[in-house]
Every structure is written in structure tokens, then in C-alpha cells.
Design a protein that fits this description.
Length: 363
Amino acid sequence: LASLGITSYTEPGLGPGEDEGATGAFGTSVVGEYRALAAEGLLRARVTVLSLYGELDGPSDLEHFLDGLAAADATTSDPRWLRFAGVKIFADGIPPMKSAYTHHCYTDGVRPELLVAGADDTEREANLTRMILAAHRLGLQVGVHATGDRAIDVMLDAIERARREHDVDLGHYVIHGDLVTVPQLRRMAALGVGLDTQPEIALRTHPLVDAALGEGTATAAWPLRAVLDAGVPLCLTSDAPVLSPDWRRQIAAADAWMGPAADPRGRMDRLLRCYTVEPARQDRAASWKGTLAAGMAADLCVLETDPYSVAPAELPDVSVELTVVDGRIVYERGAAGAVGAIEAAQTPGTTGMPETVEAAEIA
């Protein structure tokens, strides 16, 4: 990840829900490894963790979720390096698999259900709501895997209720949000709910979405322009290992999905912020990282070319010369070239590149 210029990332789902998982890559043993690396000062990027009390991409139930919250230990040796921010909940699946929780049937008549356990839709929705309320009451951030419009509605209803009970912005966010609607975006903006989405998935799977939900569905899906216009906090992410964690590819994909820009430089600036300023906000860390300014964390990457001088489609070909985390070089493409590049980066006005390339969701 350091070779990609990444200085912070989120593990969106580690914990006991995956202790019996097929890969062994998302259970509590991995949490233990992260704790050990952090305690020894061996992390080469800052890590935010969302705890998982159900199966990865699978079912969960209210009882195990509440038990997990009660037993959770969020203490770390240094929360600026390893922080347990909250919880990940899988509300539904994905449209191509006909498992996104939508307000209408799929083309073959399939009626989707939430992944949260319950006897029927009403009970499943109530249990998802209880999960979100319980986490909010504990001051935990909630990231909900929700691709279908109905799943997003249930989540937003729960957050509205949570905010009525305890009106504090904890930075909750929708993960994916493929079928999010414009009215939902207005609700999200009002509630401070963010969106973490993957534009390369849009480019790759839009024909499958149309096949599953009807011709033209994909045209309205992943509405990135509307997200930005609505003022919803937007992070671009990779969903790695589904896609490469290379942020340059996601920016190029976002630009391609959005279509021609009236102001290309302004477009590039907004998309870069989706990997810098906005992820820092999502991490509740915008006061000390995410921007290149005096007094902020010395987390940065140096590119071979000013990103504002190239088209987004060309960005994946721009190499990362140097990656610095907390003032320490963690990746150097070429010693001689990198030294000159970092000296230039330290000179005011030499680059418009924000300082922290953060992967808001890598896992």
C-alpha cells in the first residue's frame, strides 16, 4: 500500500463474526496482529477498524451483535495509528447477485431480503434498526453495507431516530450505495451521513445491474454528480481485494462515470479530496490529518507529475515517487529522484496535491 502512496486506510470489518470464516483474514486473530504491530511501532500506515459481529458479506443477528458490542475493547497503544472507530453491518448484498434490498422485484421476480436475521421483512428491518441504535448510543461510528434503495431507507430511518434520541454526528456512512436516490442524498446530507463508493465497480458491472433490475437502472445508479451537488461527504474507495486499492484508478473511473467536466481542474480537485480531506473527516481526524498545512500530520505522497496537469484518465500512469507517514519515509521509488521530489513538496506553491492519500475502505 505504501507503494501506492496510501498513508491511512480502513479495515471495514474485522472481528469475531469472522472467527470461523473461510479465509481466516478477518477474525479476531487479525485484530491481534494489528495491535501487536501498532504496539511495536511497525505499522506503515494509519489504520481505522470497523468491528464485525456477523459474517463478512453474510448474515448477522441482533443477539450476537449486542454481545459483541458489550465485549468490545477499543483501547489501543496510540489511536492515531490504530483506532477502533465503530462497527460494520452488512444490510444486504449486491444488485448483480439479486441480493440488494430494493423496493421492487428483480426482473425474474426475486424479492430480496436483508441479511440481518428475522422472521420477515418487518422483523429484519427492526433488528437492523436496533443494531444501529445500539451502536449510536455507545458513541460508535456505523458503516452499513447497503446497495439497495430500500436498505438505505432503513438505515437512514434508524439514524434519524438515533439523532432524535442523542443528537450527535458520529460520522455514520453508507458503504457502496449503488442504488441511492436523489431524495435519499438530501436526507444523508441533512443527517451528516457519508457515502463510500467504488466508481470502478460502476464501470464494470452496470450491464449486470440492468440485467438484474431492468434496462436503464444503471443509468441512475452511482449518481456521483448528484452526491457532490447534494453536499454528501463522499469517499472514493476500492473494496479491495475486489478491485485494486490503487486510488488513481478510482479517480479515473469516477471521472469516466461522471462524464465530461465543465471545469476539469475543479473536477480533479474534488475527486482528490475524496481520497484526502473527506476520509480524514470520516476518521474524525480532520483536525490533524488529511490536508497539507502547518501543524498537520506529515503524511503525504509525492507524484512524478502534478495531478492537476493531467487528465483523470492519465492519472493511473503517474507514478508514486515517495510516501511519507508521520514524517518517516515508508516508500521511495528512486533515492535520488525522491529526495528532489520531497524537497519540492516542502516548498510552498510547488504542488496542489493534498497530503494524505487515504483508502477509506480497503478490505
